[in-house]
Amino acid sequence: MIVNLRDLGGYALPNGKTVKSGMLLRSAHLADATDADIAYLKSLPTTLVVDFRTEVDLKGKANKDVPGARYVSIPIDASGNAAANATEKEMRKVTGRKKFEVNKVILFAAFNEKAKAIAREMYATLLFDPQCQHQFARFLRLVVETENGAILYHCTQGKDRTGIASALLLSALGASRETIVADFDATNKVYEKDVKKYVRRVKFWGGKEEEIAVVKAFLGANTENFIKAMDTVDRQYGSMEAYFKGPMGLTEDDIRILRERYLNNE
Prior knowledge:
By secondary structure, the chain is α/β, with parallel strands linked by helices. The chain has helices spanning 35-43, 55-58, 80-84, 88-95, 102-110, 113-128, 130-145, 161-173, 177-185, 187-190, 192-204, 209-219, 223-237, 240-245, 252-262; strands at residues 6-7, 18-19, 24-27, 46-51, 70-73, 150-154, 263-264. Helix content is 56%, strand content 9%. A 5-stranded mixed beta sheet has the order 1-3-6-4-5. Helix 8 (161-173) packs antiparallel against helix 9 and helix 11 (192-204) packs antiparallel against helix 12 (209-219).
């Protein structure tokens, strides 16, 4: 089944409108999608699937096709091999196989200094690194230009890159910061058991708070760091609107198009 699949539809906005259901969907990868998952996505219909994964993320986890949907790769390096600062040889020592599986790299990453730094700065990197900004701007442009059907966007676990993409979309639609944070934090319910399991393992090998923070960042979603990163956008750009008009390259007409297409008049 597709993990962490959920609809942005139904969120209430301060102006009394709500986000339309069945239009903007976020998830983890589609490699394990069931026939029922594919049938649901086809029924919407889903016309665009955006994949934020890098080549490392893709190994052994190719998406299943959604009939009628166009696939677009917009790779963004938020964690993956960069998070663990590991070579392919080093990864095989941890995973025991060539294909990349994030859960099995966690023990290696938890005690890796580069991974600790990335865990602290991940969301700031996604929002402020020029290459990441360029890729998110490409994504938003695709959403503006996709006039019909539902859009599904995802990364490996559907939490960090996908979480930032959702935050940008909800911000553009006029959602409150409280709603945006709630959507981001919902991922932690999905991965709660995995986080607890690997925290126990890291503690067994002598890990302290710094090592545990890596597990929480790479298997869950660090909501506190996300809030700090969003607050930094407000400080550096003055507002999300300025951020959209700056590195995201959106115009007032683009924002209007998004709100007309994806909001209910309630």
